[in-house]
Structure to design on (197 residues):
């Protein structure tokens, strides 16, 4: 409907009093209400972007967002801080994917663990680091020298223990992507040092 209205605005008909717009989808009002309630629950209560079918559902969600209070566009994630730095979730999606962000103090190493199903990608956006990976059961350590001046996305394969060490003199800023939301009851995170010596 919105696309058709935009089309009429861009190319107005000549000397016609009305424009007929044919329906492209039939949806019950109760279905729309259920979707809007789901959007509200996901966005307001869980800070999660819901799974959306392309087309109607995506347009409905975008319309839902335009009717929120201006103050609701700003979200404040919970920041977890310790002596290494801080970490917080930036975006979480209903399908499980999420993006999180960390700060790491100079000389500090994070990680030294592996996953059996969870996919992860690391990307340093400021500072200098060494990302290390080692396949479980082997001694070969793979090292990536990375820098915020030339961001690179590094994959963390399953059954590869991995770590990121801040080797610079300033705070390290890193973006992480994972395919599933963190579950404290089933974290799929197993400690094993990357460096064996």
């Amino acid at each position: 409907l919105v696309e058709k209205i935009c089309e009429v605005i861009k190319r107005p008909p000549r000397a016609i009093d009305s424009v007929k717009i044919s329906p492209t989808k039939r949806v019950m009002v109760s279905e729309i209400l259920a979707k809007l309630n789901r959007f509200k629950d996901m966005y307001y209560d869980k800070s999660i972007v819901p799974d959306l079918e392309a087309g109607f559902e995506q347009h409905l969600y975008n319309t839902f967002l335009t009717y929120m209070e201006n103050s609701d566009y700003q979200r404040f994630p919970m920041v977890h801080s310790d002596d290494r730095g801080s970490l917080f979730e930036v975006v979480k999606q209903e399908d499980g994917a999420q993006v999180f962000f960390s700060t790491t103090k100079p000389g500090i190493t994070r990680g030294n663990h592996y996953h059996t199903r969870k996919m992860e990608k690391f990307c340093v956006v400021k500072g200098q680091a060494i990302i290390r990976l080692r396949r479980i059961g082997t001694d070969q350590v793979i090292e990536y020298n990375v820098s915020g001046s030339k961001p690179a996305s590094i994959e963390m394969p399953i059954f590869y223990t991995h770590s990121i060490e801040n080797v610079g003199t300033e705070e390290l800023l890193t973006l992480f992507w994972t395919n599933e939301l963190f579950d404290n009851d089933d974290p799929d995170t197993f400690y094993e040092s990357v460096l064996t010596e």
The helical segments are 2-10, 29-45, 56-66. The chain has two domains: 2-73, 80-191. The radius of gyration is 23 Å. Residues 47 and 75 are 8 Å apart (CA to CA).
